[in-house]
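Need a sequence for this fold. Nothing fancy.
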């Protein structure tokens, strides 16, 4: 393989965080040591159909980051892995490696790393400035449109943040990560990015049904949007994403079935266009539920893939 990765080739961390926090928060003994650690582990098991996926001429398929983890019964926590890449790559396909216990993930990178490669305890706010990919429970492989890729420059440090949640009473172990397929630069016509569109603060009252939360996302420049994935937690029942009066995504929501949906035809948006995100919830509990990364809290995000990459960060400007 022409492409090489320095440091520990492993994963563990989480998705959907607020900002770029430092490594802190999680000290659970079941989550391992405090310092950077090479978790090692064998190659994760993937479905045979995934193995048969098409690789563009001149491209390569490899595990970008993956590793072993363990979590005690009934526990929830985070791990982060940092890896520095030696060469610029153009990612055309994403394959989540998410066994039971993998709640959701976010993959970001920085061109100015300040931490060593390896694995550390972290929290939901530990992310780098540029987002590459996100997944939830049940997310299937994502293949970008022809000629579209996410560029990751040489010398960048990948940060994979995994949210682990063991709902059983027994200890749980697994190997989680992200596998990618690259394409040669000569085939890249558009460089893409993904961002989170939705509100960062809200509250769902107790004993309510059909409670609606709205958010707005403003495009900073002319872009083309080509894929969307809804992300909520246990109380979410439906999401609608619209531009003006036009609906670009609408569907019921199931926490165990979070998938990317192609926007066909691709949607060209002028700078200043607002994308509306509407989430619907049922809260049968006796307590209100607010925004947060825990499965016992809620989120309202549409993950939007678009090109060109504007470098606006993880969250869409409101």
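Here you go.
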């Amino acid at each position: 393989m022409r492409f090489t990765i320095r440091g520990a080739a492993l994963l563990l961390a989480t998705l959907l965080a607020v900002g770029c926090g430092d490594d802190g928060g999680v000290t659970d003994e079941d989550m391992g040591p405090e310092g950077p650690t090479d978790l090692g582990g064998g190659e994760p098991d993937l479905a045979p159909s995934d193995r048969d996926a098409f690789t563009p001429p001149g491209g390569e398929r490899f595990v970008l980051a993956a590793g072993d983890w363990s979590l005690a019964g009934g526990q929830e926590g985070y791990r982060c892995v940092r890896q520095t890449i030696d060469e610029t790559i153009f990612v055309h396909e994403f394959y989540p490696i998410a066994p039971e216990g993998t709640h959701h993930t976010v993959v970001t990178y920085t061109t100015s790393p300040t931490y060593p490669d390896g694995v550390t305890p972290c929290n939901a706010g530990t992310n780098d400035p540029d987002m590459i990919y996100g997944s939830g429970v049940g997310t299937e492989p994502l293949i970008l449109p022809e000629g579209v890729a996410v560029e990751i420059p040489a010398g960048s440090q990948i940060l994979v943040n995994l949210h682990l949640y063991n709902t059983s009473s027994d200890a749980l172990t697994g190997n989680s990560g992200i596998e990618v397929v690259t394409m040669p630069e000569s085939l890249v016509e558009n460089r893409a990015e993904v961002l989170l569109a939705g509100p960062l603060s809200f509250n769902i009252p107790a004993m309510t049904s059909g409670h609606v939360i709205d958010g707005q996302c403003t495009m900073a420049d002319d872009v083309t949007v080509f894929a969307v994935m809804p992300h909520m937690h246990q109380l979410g029942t439906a999401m609608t994403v619209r531009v003006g009066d036009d609906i670009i995504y609408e569907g019921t929501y199931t926490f165990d079935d979070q998938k990317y949906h192609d926007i066909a035809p691709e949607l060209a948006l002028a700078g200043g266009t607002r994308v509306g995100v509407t989430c619907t919830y049922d809260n049968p509990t006796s307590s209100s539920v607010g925004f947060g990364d825990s499965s016992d809290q809620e989120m309202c995000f549409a993950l939007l893939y678009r090109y060109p990459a504007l470098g606006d960060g993880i969250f869409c400007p409101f």
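For context: Residues 1-51 have pLDDT under 50 and may be disordered.
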